[in-house]
Structure to design on (204 residues):
């Protein structure tokens, strides 16, 4: 009798867990994707021979994919690339450089009707490529790890489509070696871009 009651209890628990899993799965979509137009605003904070190094603001598209582990917790992979003009303030032209900073953020999502605010934090690894040296013989940028903070808001248009507003701050520094023709000058440049984006998303 005890074995039968124990067996019945285990079956009941199993059915209850499966029902909860099915209900949870039906409450939200596991995947979503967004396409944004973003403004990448660098805020360099280091100097080259006592002069400020300036990177231009860039306006580019950005694509991201989000996977929801639960209704509230998700991971977002952010993909985009941007070209920045680089110069010394009131000085020499450092040409331009392309940045490719794939970023992975862990997010927490809140729900308020059709509004879904979220916050996130994560890491990125930035590749520097397509370097133009400007007035110098050669410039080399080291690829680098950085950290990311994020806040945003989704607004549901229907069960599939939604609008998005997103703000990210990347904490990113790179070691730069500038060949002046008379020797190589090492510089550490803090890029630390603020990224503001608006776009549209799809759940699937």
């Amino acid at each position: 009798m005890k074995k039968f009651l124990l067996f019945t209890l285990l079956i009941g628990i199993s059915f209850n867990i499966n029902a909860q899993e099915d209900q949870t799965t039906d409450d939200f979509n596991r995947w979503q994707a967004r396409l944004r137009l973003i403004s990448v605003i660098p805020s360099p904070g280091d100097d080259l021979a006592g002069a400020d190094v300036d990177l231009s603001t860039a306006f580019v598209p950005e694509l991201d994919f989000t996977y929801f582990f639960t209704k509230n917790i998700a991971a977002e992979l952010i993909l985009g690339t941007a070209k920045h003009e680089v110069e010394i303030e009131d000085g020499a032209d450092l040409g331009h450089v392309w940045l490719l900073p794939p970023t992975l953020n862990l997010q927490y999502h809140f729900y308020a009707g059709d509004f879904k605010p979220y916050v996130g934090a994560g890491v990125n690894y930035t590749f520097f490529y397509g370097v133009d040296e400007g007035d110098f013989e050669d410039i080399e940028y080291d690829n680098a790890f950085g950290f990311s903070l994020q806040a945003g808001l989704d607004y549901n248009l229907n069960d599939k489509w939604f609008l998005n507003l997103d703000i990210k701050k990347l904490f990113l520094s790179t070691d730069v070696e500038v060949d002046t023709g008379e020797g190589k000058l090492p510089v550490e440049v803090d890029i630390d871009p603020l990224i503001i984006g608006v776009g549209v998303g799809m759940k699937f």
Observations:
- The longest helix spans residues 2-27.
- The domain at 30-203 is CATH 2.40.160.20 (Porin).
- The helical segments are 2-27.
